[in-house]
Amino acid sequence: MNRGLTNIAFGLPEAAERDIRRTVELAEAEDLPLMRAKAYGNLGDLAQMTGDAPRSLRHHEQAERTFRVLAPDLVARTRIDRARVMLAAGLADEAAKHLDEALVVLRRRRVGQDLAEAELARAAAALLQGDPSTALELAGQAQRRFRRRGSTSWAELAALMKMRAEFAATHPPAASPPHSADSPDSPGGTSEVVLPQVEGFFLTSARRPAAAVPSRPGRTAAAHAPVAVTVTVPRGAPVRPGRRATPARAAKLAERLTSVGLTDEAAVATLLAVRMAIRRGDLPGARALLDRVPAPTPITPVDHRMLRRLCRAELAVATGSPAAALREAEEGLAELGRVRDRMGGLDLLCGTAVHGRELGELAVGLVLDHDGEHGGDAGRAFDWLERTRAQVYRYEPLPAIDDPVLARRVAESRSLSRAVQQARLDGRPVDELEARLDALQNEVARLGWHTSVWGRPRPVCRVGDVLPHLGDRTVISFVTRGDVLSAVVLSTAGATLVRLGRAGEVFELTRQLHADLDVLAPDHLAPALADAITESATLRAARLDDLLVAPLAAHLGSRELVVVPTGELYAVPWNALPSLHRRPVVVAPSATAWLNARSARPRATRVVLVGGPDLPEAVGEVGGLRAAYPDAVVAESVPGVLEALDGARLAHIAAHGEHVADNALFSRLELADGPLFAHETARLRQAPEQVVLAACSLALSRIRPGDEALGFAGALLASGSRTVVAAVSKVGDKAAALTMETFHRLLAEGEPMSHALAEATAEAPLRRPFVCFGA
């Protein structure tokens, strides 16, 4: 084991894996379960070093199972290790939750080294969440603990984290006023360089220096691979006053990191100095610093690689070479794509996008600016948007790995969810039950990361790939740059870029309309309240129509629309906008996803009808649809529904549901024997081709970097469903029933789904906020 750890420390992954796997064999032969668990933890570190996040998480999970029984004191340590893997995969919220649990235990036990490491990793999560103030405070605490312990290497890592937090606070996006040339360390006579406006991204590393590993009885030391995550920090994030991050300070920190053997982190500090120098207008200094950064090695973390690409791209922009910047972005995103191809589970696939977001935004910004100023090729903007958004939907799903532990945990979650619901109805306390349910759902999510396999990536579509398939359709791809919302309109006539106005105003109107529709949803609303809310919603829908659709009217004609939203626009009920009444509209996460869904060949014939509990007869009685689908399979229980959905042509599900904003894959449908979770649909061997969610608002999604939309409808689409019809806000039972009656009648007459839905929602679009997703 120790030889394996030494090989990890020297960056020799193949030799390390041979030794550690031999450790596992020996531990099994000699019945040493604790040694075996420690070896699995080391395999998790090794997998992280080589960029295999799913395998790393699986090994750490194996280690923790044994630690819970034989060495509870090591569970918190494993939580830290696993949180670092999550950070590398861009899962800041999940990592923060893990670390907060570990910190409670470590502070109670006063475990100095592990506590400081947990604080440092939690600072990284805070930066990724856009909270530099918390990051600065936690990094400072960690640095003081490391110094007291004499852990020089770790103290310098904490210093790097503090500098990143300072950088986040003192280096706003380039569109903000430039810094004074008289600021400390600013070269005399130079001026600021204004880069394309991008969010402030930088890395947070949490390498565990081998020299700092504490020696304690009963524990095998483990070297930890570097973990780095790219973070975005909103403007104006409050940070307590402190020293200002400058190129000179960053360069000196790089020297100190090199002196303690942390060369990867030294490179990150140097790259941070490069970005500062560019913003100060010291381009020769920035180039000299960049030349000091060594070329990446096979085990350099992807975020370090992306930061180096970003620095090269920003320097190219600053020196007037946009073409070189675009090359860096193209090569960097391709490199990131190869990392993504190894991920498992929707969360990991989506989270990886965070590492390339800033490169993508820089490239899209360059192209949009060029097209705006010179009337350039809008098709190029379309191609870059496709490169940078919603990549998860271009993977061919493969059958999931059977995992009996995962199956048991899902069953326990379902049972406990019902217990919580019953306790609420009985007026009993639910805090303890909810805490147990939250822990179970976290475990299910973790297991899903390494037991949900995703298949071969399909190529990203370009304008030339989409045009032959448009027919009588128009694609509208929305994009924001700063506070400017634009749309690239693609039709058989070609691509056109249209500036639409302030993104903030559009997004706020979308939120207000969504709130109005939620209030308007109940069937038995007081007439005066219904009239007031209807008036408000009508005005907001008309205003959104003026901002989003009217400027595009000349390019749309009367054609069917394929809408690729951004951010808040995923919640727009498109057929509720006045000019889109009765117009077929399909919403897709990207044109690539739309084309892949449209190109899929229908194979199945089975129709599935699902009715959930506690619905009015008009909605919940699926027997009324048997006239349209006489051979349909009717299912009610979770196992029966999952079996019926597998390989179905059409599934109509009438059940109450809930979108879970902070854990979208636990969005659920309430069935007769408990909830059916979104992540369970992602584990079907063959997803149903078309799904209608008739009585719930499960079209809502959590929007992640790269406009990756995760939720119930998103899980179905990513798993291979061609079309999902669902509501983007609450919908009343009567309104849902009337919508579905018309919708299925038109489907039975041969109308395509988007056409049938446009007609079915037209009579009362504000009360029927259903949207057709996919193709």
TrEMBL record:
Pfam family, one: CHAT
Biased composition (Low complexity): 170-187
Region (Disordered): 170-192
CHAT domain: residues covered: 541-761
SUPFAM superfamilies: TPR-like (SSF48452)
Name of the protein this chain belongs to: CHAT domain-containing protein
